[in-house]
Amino acid sequence: MSEVFIGRQPILDRDMNVFAYELRFHQGLNPNKESLQATSELIKSTEDNIGFQAIVGHNNMMLHLPKDLLDVNNLPNLDPDTTLVLEIPNNVSKDVEVLKKLRDIRQAGSKIALDDFVDDDSSIKLAGISDYVKVDVEAHTEIQLKLIIESLHHKGVQVIAEKVETEEMFNYLKKLGFDYFQGYFFTNPIIINGQKLSGNNLTLLQLLAKVNDPATDFYELSQIVGQDVALSHKLLVAINNPTNMIPIRVETISDALKYMGLKRLKFWVNMLMLSNIENVPKELMITSLMRAKFCEIIAETSGQKTEKDSYFLVGLFSNLGAFFKVPIEDVVSEMPLADNLQQALVERVGPMGDAIRVLEAMEQASSVLGNLKYDGLGINEIGNSFMVASAWAHQAITQ
C-alpha cells in the first residue's frame, strides 16, 4: 500500500488568532489508484481512531483532498459550529464533474477555498465560486500581490497568504492587505539584537527549571506554587475542570498531588506558567503542547520509552525563544538543564534534537516529507503521531 499521511498547518487572522487548520493529504510524487485508495482508508481510520474534530479543536477546518476524492460523501463529520472549507485546485474550471460535486458540497454547508491562485483565466473563473483564495507569496512580486488582493477583495473574496515563515513576513503581508496567513511564523518572532530577558522572565525561567528538575519533589513544588497566589488559584481551577474526572473538589495542592500524581501536576504548572507570558499568541501554547506530546510519542514508539519525560520536556521547551522573543540559546543558558537537553534545544543534535528536526519538517510541510524517518519509524508512523499529538494538545488547552 502506498504511503499516505496528513499534514497540518494553522491559518491565523490579522490578530494572530487561529482562523482554521489546513489538513492536507500527501500522496508522494506520483499519485495513482493505489495511493487514492490509501487516502480513503486514511480518512476513515483518522475519523475512527482520532477524529478530525479533535485534530482542529473548536476551530474551522480547511481540507485539501485529492481531486478524485472531491465528493460530499468523503467529507469528515464535524460539529455544527465548525465550518469546513474545502480546498480546490486551480485547474478544474473546465471539469464539469468536479464543478457539479463542488456545487453539492456548497449546498451541504461547506465553503470553498481556491488553492495556488495564479492570475490566469482558470483561477479567475474559479475565484468567482470561492469564498477564499490562497496565494503563494513567494511566486509573485509586491506589485502583483497588491493587484491580486485588490481584485479579489473587489469580488468579495478573502485572501490567504501561503508560506509565511516569520513574524516579519507576517507584518509585511498584513500591510499589503492579506486577510489570513498560513504557517508557523509565530514560532519565529522578531528578535531585537541585544534584547535581554527581563527580571520577571528570568524569574519565570528559573521557576520552570526548578519545576522540571527530576529531583524536585512534591514539597518543593508546593512551595513554588504556594508563593504565587494567582498561579495557585488558576491551578486549582484547572484541576477541578469536569473533564479531569476527579471524584472530589480539590481544595489544596496536596489533594491535587493525591489525585493527579507529581508528573501530571508538573505538567499543569508548566502550562499555566507559560500561558501567563504576555503578548503570546494562544497558538504558540498549543504548538508547544503538541511538540511535547509528539516527542513523547516518538520516544515511546522508537524504543526510547525510559527517556520519554525528557523528550516531552524538550518538545515543550523547543519554542521558549518565541515565548520570550530572544534566541533559544539565551533562554537555555538561564536554565540548569542536562547537557543532552541543552544540545537538543540549541543545536538540534542527538536523538532528541533529531526528533525536533523531524517535527519541524512536519510543521513546515517540507518537500522531503515522503522520505522522513526517525530511528526506524517511517512517515506513516510519524504522521499518525503528529495527528495524535495535535488532538491531545487541543484537548489539554481546553481543560
Q: What is this entry, summarized?
A:
The protein is an alpha/beta fold. It contains 18 helices and 8 strands.
**Principal-axis shape:** globular
The level 1 CATH classification of the largest domain is Mainly Alpha
The CATH homologous superfamily of the largest domain is termed: Hypothetical protein af1432
Q: Tell me the series of helices and strands, N- to C-terminal.
A: EEHHEEHEHEHEHEHHHHHHHHHHHH
Helix content range: 40-55%
| Strand percent estimate | 5-15%
Strand line-up in the sheet with most strands: 1-2-3-4-5-6-7-8
End-to-end separation: 38 Å
Helix/strand-derived category reads alpha/beta
Secondary structure: elements and pairs:
Elements: E1 5-12, E2 18-26, H1 33-49, H2 52-56, E3 60-64, E4 84-88, H3 96-107, E5 111-114, H4 121-127, E6 132-136, H5 142-154, E7 158-162, H6 167-176, E8 180-182, H7 199-211, H8 218-226, H9 229-239, H10 253-260, H11 262-275, H12 282-301, H13 308-317, H14 320-324, H15 328-332, H16 339-347, H17 350-363, H18 379-398
Parallel strand pairs: 2-3, 3-4, 4-5, 5-6, 6-7, 7-8
Antiparallel strand pairs: 1-2, 1-8
Helix pairs in contact: 9-11, 12-13, 12-17, 12-18, 13-17, 16-17
Describe it for me?
By secondary structure, the protein is of the alpha/beta class. The protein has two domains: 5-186, TIM Barrel; 199-398, Hypothetical protein af1432 (Orthogonal Bundle). 51% of the residues lie in helices and 11% in strands. It has helices at 33-49, 52-56, 96-107, 121-127, 142-154, 167-176, 199-211, 218-226, 229-239, 253-260, 262-275, 282-301, 308-317, 320-324, 328-332, 339-347, 350-363, 379-398, and strands spanning 5-12, 18-26, 60-64, 84-88, 111-114, 132-136, 158-162, 180-182. Helix 5 (142-154) links the parallel strand 6 (132-136) and strand 7. The longest helix is centred in the last third of the chain and has 20 residues, at 282-301.
